[in-house]
Amino acid sequence: MAKLSSILSSPFDKKPNSVSALMLWVVGATLPGLFALIHFFGFGVLINLCLAITTALVCEAVILKLRQKPLLPILLDGSALVTAWLLALALPPLLPWWMTVIGSAFAIIFAKHLYGGLGNNLFNPAMVGYVLLLISFPVHMTSWLPAQDLAANPISLGDTFSYIFTGTSTNGADISWARQGIDGFTLATPLDHVKTELSQGFRIAEIQSSPIIEGLSGIGWQWVNLAFLLGGLALLIRKVIGWQIVAGTLLGVCGMAFLLFAIDSDHYVSPLFHLFSGATMLTAFFIATDPVTASTTAKGRWLFGLGIGIICVVIRTFGGYPDAFAFAVLIMNMTVPMIDYYTKPKAYGHQKSSNGTGSSNG
Amino acid sequence: MERSNFTSEIPIFNIPGGIHPAEHKTESNSQPIRKLPLAKQLVINLKGQAGNRSVATVEVGDYVLKGQVIAENDGIFSSYQHAPSSGTVIAIEKRPIAHPSGLEDLCIIIETDGQDKWCDLSPVDYKNLQREQILARIFEAGIVGLGGASFPSHIKLKREQGIDTLIINAAECEPYITCDDRLLQENAKQVLAGAQIVAHLFHNLNIVIGIEDNKPAAIEALKKARQELQLDNLKIAVVPTKYPSGGEKQLIQLLTGKQVPHGKLPADLGIIMHNVGTCFAIYEAIIHGKPLVERIVTLTGDACSNKGNYRIPFGTPIEHLIKATESQLANKYIMGGPMMGYELQSLSIGIVKATNCIIMNNKQLPANQSVLPCIRCGECMNACPAELLPQQLYWHSKADEFDKAEDYNLFDCIECGACAYVCPSNIPLVQYYRYAKSTIRNNRVEKIKADKARQRHEARLERIERVKREKAEKHQKAAEARRKAAQATGQDDAKKAAVAAALARVQAKKAQQEKTADKADCVDNNKQESS
To answer: Does residue B168 fall inside a structural domain?
Structure first.
């Protein structure tokens, strides 16, 4: 490749934006969601964040050293921070510390750097880390805390630390203690709850009486989703993320959920419930919009988003896992090269409409 | 910057992409157009236009008058050059020229005598001239597109059939540059008179002047000039300020909603486009008989002490402009605008017909920041006015996958630089595209050459083979004839037979020798060809 000297090249003016600024915007926009998570599920998520970020930065530094790349510019680009950040937001609050470390390390080392580092990875690193953990430790990964307002035993900061680093509370109780509802039963997440109840032959109308899915989608989760929606809108307004991906994902969720709901509203939950439960908003605004692993064309972004939304509802409804965004994102990551190729926009002068003489390439 | 509230007289369409860089226009557009003291030496680049190098018609030692022809065209895309001032030709030699790589090329160097004395000018009443005569005058006045491409104007005007619209490009969308703005503020009437001359070459031509809304004074001047000239078929189309709305294809899309089809010309849509500076030059050439010897250049940038627009003779060296504007030496000199211009490698080069602006800059531009990997954010795609996928073009150009880059319509890239301007990773995208384009072009030329060489080689091998075959046949026939002769004379005489046998052996040996000699010859020739 010919030597490219940036001195000679026009343009000589540059919009003041940078990769790290984009990354910091993403992190900043998750703050409302983060506060909601802390409010409803305790401080576990903060500890997860610290663990994941430290692991990600250390792993990135080690790999960069091994690859003989400059450390600072890449560590400071914020991409490892975002990967760790999004992973930590998706993890259950009381996950044992070493699982968070494994997930974060796997995301950075395997999903990112083994593919060539920033910009070269096919799969969303945070979701690769998440799925590794989900498949390896399904029990831990689906042991979410109930919203603290519903829990029989709201946990203290000390308990949170104790659970994460020793696996039991300060009193030696295991995780099921923290998950107990006021009535003494273990409280699941709304998605999990609906799945279990449906499998036991209940109908939606009967399930909905439970406090777990009160309101739109249960007391904690609807607010968490609304908070992520709020932060996500800020990103849209700042044009940090591709709006087509967000629109596609939300439309995919709504469309698929509506289809099922219209067919049989006794056995399929409403589109609204899907929109505001689990990781819907986090994914639509923050995870699916990772530009490196998403489709890069305008039309392709719609397809990419739609695919994620549809696959997610399908797995939530018919699959073995209560939530499925990580799978949906990874599956759609695989399709990106093909989507990109077939959704090339028509370049200037290639439109058929222009005088009917649009010609082929060359 | 101030925006005009003048409503466009024709509907304006939208163009995709585009950017809004800092305009930096007010620094240079408040002062009237000035003149600078004449330079001692003028360096006139014979390759100062599109097409072939002009051929010098003067010799060293000749005295020339301002406006006298000093070089002729070579081929149709080339053009005439005239002495920008009176003086003596002191050299015709290679000098650094206005080119991004600092190339040297043939220049005529004139030492000015300070008289600035015009040669005889022959103004004409164009209304009495034939179409061809007007075109010839425009050609002989050395007029090329002054918007930047330097394409000979008369060629654009040649085609008469099917042309219904003249678009005058006054968009001037690049930051810093204000030469067209100032020209309209001061000489709108002459510019429109030039447009009238162009309109005279066609039947019922609609004239549309496309101008960005950041030039309210120029728009006012245009309105006034139109009234004075009673140009009723002229429409003023005010387009929103957005780079690169002044690109030929982009302005056509803005004003007509149509796209110039790939591989076609604006003329195929019935449109011709000329820059305001070109219209002014046509006016000067026809009405005053003045050939193109100077142009308005914007001198600006943070290191320029007297920013503004100047009427500068061609060939004036940059170093003279620095001195004459009492500017300090700057870190960087850019010819053209910041988006599509290039950095000058030498200050001794003379300005050419395409030079619309010189930016003298000290400030480090943010473009020098460290380059990070592409994160496919798509900012470039949103900024691209040609609706390309710059991120994919970059990916394939970087990997030398040129066929794929072409598949993504690399050659529809107009190199406007909007993609690189918005890139958060600071990737010099345009440079990758230029690299890919030039490599593809070179490969094509190489391939044609290689194909020709292969054909020649194959033809030669076939010829040698044929000659060998013919010789062998001849020998065989001769041998047979001899054998028959021997048989006829009878085999009774043993002595005779022995002689005949000996002769035949010699004959055969000779044939063998000839064969090897032929081979050696063949090898020799091959060597010669390959060397």
So the answer is: yes
